[in-house]
Design brief:
Elements: H1 3-14, H2 23-32, H3 34-56, H4 60-64, H5 66-70
Helix pairs in contact: 1-3
Amino acid sequence: MRCAQFRTALSARLDGEPSGLPGIRLDKHLTRCTGCREWLERAERLRDQVSAVTADGPSEAWTAGLPARLGVDAPVGHAPEGPQTAER
């Protein structure tokens, strides 16, 4: 079985869904596979960060920096202005 299959099962377990694999098999793989352990640690951190933001609502600092993190100049929710037309 490839790591991608284990990571799919680990993701399901993180979400409280059936993983499709016995827990002991997942745990055994994690003891042997550094890559999957690191992947799981990152997934758990991401889950915790998302949970914190959704529980408290996004902070001003977090939302203020969002456009830059997304690589856009305009504030989120605002479409950039189109070409200007000359008034007649």
